[in-house]
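ARCHIVE CARD
CATEGORY: sequence design from structure
SOURCE FIELD: tokenized fold
FIELD CONTENT:
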């Protein structure tokens, strides 16, 4: 088995792409041996949905696409990244009682922490950023 597996997809920054990103990640992780009906799989799908939604909604049309990257290192660590070309980095917004959006990063951080993972943000060469989630992987990898 290779020490490193990768998969990537670039999608238009359109709301319909959020479900496409979620389906893509679910398919790749299933190929890597993750049972789709686990709590971990549910958490990963929700994290992808929130990150992709942020890439679509909060780039204000300045990032025509976003990219979802998956890396599995030594069957120990899953790295999930969503990259867009907008220069503004995500930040926590105050959660007002009447606010009906703006909680995506809080949800992502909580899910990552519950799974034993962490969130980081790195700059890209073109002035954008990648939001990375690193999660422990305990599933034997398939072919």
């Amino acid at each position: 088995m290779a020490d490193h597996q990768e998969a990537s997809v670039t999608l238009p920054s359109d709301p319909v792409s959020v479900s496409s990103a979620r389906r893509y990640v679910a398919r790749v992780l299933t190929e890597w041996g993750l049972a789709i009906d686990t709590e971990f799989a549910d958490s990963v799908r929700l994290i992808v949905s929130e990150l992709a939604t942020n890439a679509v909604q909060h780039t204000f049309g300045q990032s025509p696409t976003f990219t979802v990257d998956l890396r599995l290192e030594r069957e120990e660590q899953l790295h999930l990244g969503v990259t867009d070309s907008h220069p503004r980095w995500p930040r926590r917004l105050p959660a007002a009682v009447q606010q009906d959006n703006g909680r995506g990063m809080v949800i992502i951080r909580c899910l990552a922490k519950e799974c034993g993972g962490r969130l980081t943000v790195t700059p890209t060469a073109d002035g954008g950023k990648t939001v990375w989630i690193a999660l422990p992987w305990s599933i034997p990898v398939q072919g």
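CARD ANNOTATION: The first strand starts at residue 4 and ends at 12. The helical segments are 16-31, 39-57, 104-114.
SHELF: design records, drawer C
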